[in-house]
Amino acid sequence: MRISDVNQLEFDEFTSKFGNVIEHATLITAAVWSERPFRSLTHLHDEICKFIDTLPDTGKAGILRCHPDLAGKLSQAGTLTSESTKEQSGSGLLSLTEDERNYLQQCNAKYRNKFGFPFVICARENKKDAIMKGFKTRLDNSMVDELNTGIREVKKIGWYRLLDLVDKDSHL
Ligand SMILES: NC(=O)N[C@H]1NC(=O)NC1=O
């Protein structure tokens, strides 16, 4: 699909195609539709990021809370969204040894205990070893740092999801 095709989409078509670019946060896509026409895929992504940046910290934490744990319950039950399944499997998180899975689940629990939202990292840019390391360093951060870091990762995840849907080099 080209960006010119994106600009032709009715609201319902747009939200159905792009509704999960930010995991379980269709409202963001719904809001951004009003900003058409998009000059490029980058412009569409910028509008998504701009909308996220206008949210209070509670809204940003809410976005993080809509993300599934890495190698968590949903992945074991096979009920991740198709996007998350692709991302988590690409980084090796869906084929862990039992020890690795136990370790990650302990890290998830520690992180969630400390910050009140899940650890979010762009799995397409991090293989499982980098993710395990990321847990180690990020667990020592402050709440403000982690809210910002998590949101930065959400924006990266969204960019890759957009790349799966639209030809990046198409312009108006
Ligand atoms: N918790 C978390 O980071 N989840 C995810 N990251 C990613 O790239 N896809 C996800 O589902």
TrEMBL record:
Protein family (similarity comment): Belongs to the OHCU decarboxylase family.
Pfam family, one: OHCU_decarbox
GO molecular function: 2-oxo-4-hydroxy-4-carboxy-5-ureidoimidazoline decarboxylase activity
Main location: other
Subcellular location: Peroxisome
Protein's gene: LOC100371438
Biochemical pathway: Purine metabolism; urate degradation; (S)-allantoin from urate: step 3/3
Group of enzyme by EC: lyase
UniProt EC number: 4.1.1.97
Protein's name in the database: 2-oxo-4-hydroxy-4-carboxy-5-ureidoimidazoline decarboxylase
Keywords: Decarboxylase, Lyase, Peroxisome, Purine metabolism
Catalyzed reactions per annotation: 5-hydroxy-2-oxo-4-ureido-2,5-dihydro-1H-imidazole-5-carboxylate + H(+) = (S)-allantoin + CO2
InterPro entries named in the record: OHCU_decarboxylase (IPR018020), OHCU_decarboxylase-1 (IPR017580), OHCU_decarboxylase_sf (IPR036778)
GO cellular component: peroxisome
